[in-house]
Amino acid sequence: MNNYLIPANTNKGKLIFGLFRKEDLILFGVGVGITLLLLVIVPMTSTIMTVVVLAPAAISALLVAPVPYYHNILNVLKELLEFINNRQKYVWKGWCSNYGEGNDK
User: Fold this and answer.
1) Helix (H, G, I), strand (E, B), or coil: what is residue 20?
2) Which of 3, 10, 51, 79 has the fewest CB atoms in 10 Å of its CB?
3) Exposed/middle/buried for 34, CB within 10 Å: 0-12, 13-18, 19+?
4) Stretches in the chain below the pLDDT threshold 70
5) Number of C-alpha atoms within 13 angstroms, CB side, residue 78?
6) Burial 42-79 (b: 16+ CB within 10 A, else e)
């Protein structure tokens, strides 16, 4: 008997550390790099400046944070924008599309 056991999430093996795509790590690296550059250049004399300097790393970390049913927050935002920008009225084209249109014979 040929029974095969397939793992529930086979795509996890394609990801780096089981969580990240290459693009996610690049995005996070750019955010951290910008933050490190700002730490060297910008004098942090107030709380607001500290928040501004640390913002790129924090935002990129939030974007690549994993969430259930999606890959990460970035994918949630992409799906949300796609939903908002696409057609919102869905036309039924099923096998009973003429039902209720007065075509009763």
Assistant:
1) strand
2) 3
3) middle
4) 1-16, 18, 92-105
5) 8
6) eeeeeeeeeeebeebbeebeebbeeeeeebbbbbeeee
